[in-house]
Structures are given as structure tokens and as C-alpha cells.
Amino acid sequence: MVVHLSRPAVGIESLDHFYEVIEMRTKGGQLDTTQAYTRNIPKRADELVDGGSIYWIIKGQYCARQKILKLEKQEDDEGRKFCIITLDAELIRTVPQLRRAHQGWRYLNEADAPDDLPEGDAGDLTPEMAAELKELGLL
Prior knowledge:
By secondary structure, the protein is of the alpha+beta class. It has a single domain, classed as Archaeosine Trna-guanine Transglycosylase, Chain: A, domain 4, CATH 2.30.130. Helix content is 17%, strand content 37%. It contains three helices and seven strands. The chain has helices at 15-25, 45-48, 127-135; strands at 3-8, 33-38, 53-58, 61-75, 81-88, 92-98, 106-109. Strands 1, 2, 3, 4, 5, 6 and 7 form a seven-stranded mixed sheet that branches. A hairpin with a 2-residue loop joins strand 3 and strand 4. The protein is globular and about 50 Å long. The protein starts with a strand and ends with a helix.
């Protein structure tokens, strides 16, 4: 059973800003992966790496996701444990869905995850406009 993570994109101002950050982290597209860090390894790690994604919350709504490739337990020089989440570098836009921000991450079931935003005209919408159209039932 696939499960996803919901996580705030801390310090990210917009979807365009997130694309810029991903571009920097992948050294201009030279790397195929990026990483996210968390203090604890998720207990449902097997379900996450079996097709799960991190759904990013930007300004109070889901806007994009990245596929989870691997989870690794690590320990720093002072003995504190943490988890490295290796993600596919591709940032996939999703149909915006309102979501209250939270600290850290939360599990997100497949049925509750927003759909990917279709390519074409809808893909050119700003997240705010797409959220408004979705709320009106037009997207």
C-alpha cells in the first residue's frame, strides 16, 4: 500500500521560488535527486519508497510533489539521529488543495492526495488561480 508525506516547504515563497531552489540543489539539472531531512525516520518507510511522494505545502496549499526514492537513517557527529529522504529532482505540480500548515511531516493517504496538474493550459495557471478554479468546480 502506497502512502505519501505531507510537508511544509519552509522558506519557500512561491512555486516559482521552489523551482529555483530545486535548480540550485541539482546544480543546474546535473543531479537527478535532491534530499530532505527530518529528525525521525518514518515508521511506514516501506510504504513510502513503494511509490510514495512528498506533497509540499506552499502558502497554505498543496502545490507540488516529489517522488520518494530512498530513506536512510544517519547520525551526526554528536550522536543525534536523523533521516535523509532522497527525492527525485523532478517537481510535479499538483492541483492546488488548501491545507493548513503543520510542523514536520504527516502521512497522506493515496485517496487524500491531490491529483497532478494536467499539462497544457491548466499547467500554466498560477497556483492561486488553479485553487480558485478548483474551489468553483471548474478544474
